[in-house]
């Protein structure tokens, strides 16, 4: 199974909204609503920020939202803040009972 | 609070077997509503899912690594393990262990608790 495809980098100014895409296939992203997003700051452990496509764990800012259409999931960060500068990874459950990560996206706050 | 701690050699020679153990505290490793995962990340690169083991001993592995990976669990010692055979420099990475569990009612199972990771370098 190939890694899910994400843009290598996305940038935006403080206060703006950005969207990160995560494209897979009908065997992973398109198969179930089991897509998760992780945020990883340099040198840190990944932090779960969205699960089941659009749900937020308690304590995660409402500025983070998720969606999915067909084989592509998306993460939107609204009201971009300096602290959002990090790497973001999607991960999807697959029809083979395995998981596959995305290629990762570096978010830069200009 | 669940805590996970990876342990094992930081240096492995090419063609040898990488062996790591993850010790779990703060949760029962034998509880059915969770699985125990291995994820790795080469320096400056993306996360890669390696596989998971259930308390029952059932395992699922990434197809790209399946032929070289052995996952096991020892509930009596509250730890689970990864063995990766025939390693090459491409296996040099930070290896994380993590717990996967439902985040909410009826949700999928996701890694919500991670170890700090252990760096494994493959070099002669």
In short:
Chain A contains no helices and nine strands. With 110 residues, chain A is an all-beta fold. By secondary structure, chain B is an all-beta fold.
Structure description:
The complex is a heterodimer of chains A (110) and B (124). By secondary structure, chain A is an all-beta fold. Chain A is 0% helix and 44% strand. Chain A is globular and about 40 Å long. By secondary structure, chain B is an all-beta fold. Helix content of chain B is 0%, strand content 52%. Chain B has no helices and 11 strands. In chain B, the strands form 2 sheets. In chain B, strands 2, 4, 5, 6, 9, 10 and 11 form a 7-stranded mixed β-sheet that branches. In chain B, strands 1-3-8-7 form a 4-stranded antiparallel β-sheet, with no helix packed on it. The chains are: A mainly beta (110), B mainly beta (124).
What topology emerges from the helices and strands here?
The complex is a heterodimer of chains A (110) and B (124).
Chain A (H helix, E strand, L loop, with lengths): L8 E4 L5 E6 L11 E6 L6 E4 L13 E6 L2 E6 L8 E8 L5 E3 L3 E5 L1
Parallel strand pairs in A: 1-9
Antiparallel strand pairs in A: 2-6, 3-4, 3-7, 5-6, 7-8, 7-9
Chain B lengths: L2 E5 L3 E2 L5 E8 L9 E7 L6 E6 L5 E3 L7 E6 L4 E6 L8 E10 L6 E6 L3 E5 L2
Parallel strand pairs in B: 2-11
Antiparallel strand pairs in B: 1-3, 3-8, 4-5, 4-9, 5-6, 7-8, 9-10, 9-11
């Amino acid at each position: 199974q190939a890694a899910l495809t994400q843009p290598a980098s996305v940038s935006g100014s403080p206060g703006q909204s950005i969207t990160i895409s995560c494209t897979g296939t009908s065997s992973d992203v398109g198969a179930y609503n089991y897509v998760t997003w992780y945020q990883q700051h340099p040198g840190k452990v990944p932090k779960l920020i969205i699960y089941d496509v659009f749900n937020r764990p308690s304590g995660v800012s409402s500025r983070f939202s998720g969606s999915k259409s067909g084989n592509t999931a998306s993460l939107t960060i609204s009201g971009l803040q300096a602290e959002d500068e990090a790497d973001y990874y999607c991960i999807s459950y697959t029809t083979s009972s395995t998981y596959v990560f995305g290629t990762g996206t570096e978010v830069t706050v200009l | 609070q669940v805590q996970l701690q990876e342990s094992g050699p930081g240096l492995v020679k090419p063609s040898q077997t990488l062996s790591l153990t993850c010790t779990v505290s703060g949760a029962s490793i034998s509880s059915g509503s969770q699985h125990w995962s291995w994820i790795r990340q080469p320096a400056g690169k993306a996360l890669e899912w390696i596989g998971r083991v259930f308390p029952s001993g059932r395992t699922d592995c990434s197809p790209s690594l399946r032929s070289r990976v052995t996952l096991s669990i020892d509930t009596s010692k509250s730890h689970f393990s990864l063995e990766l055979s025939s390693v090459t420099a491409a296996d040099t990475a930070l290896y994380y262990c993590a717990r996967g569990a439902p985040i909410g009612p009826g949700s999928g199972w996701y890694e919500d608790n991670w170890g700090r990771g252990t760096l494994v370098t493959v070099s002669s």
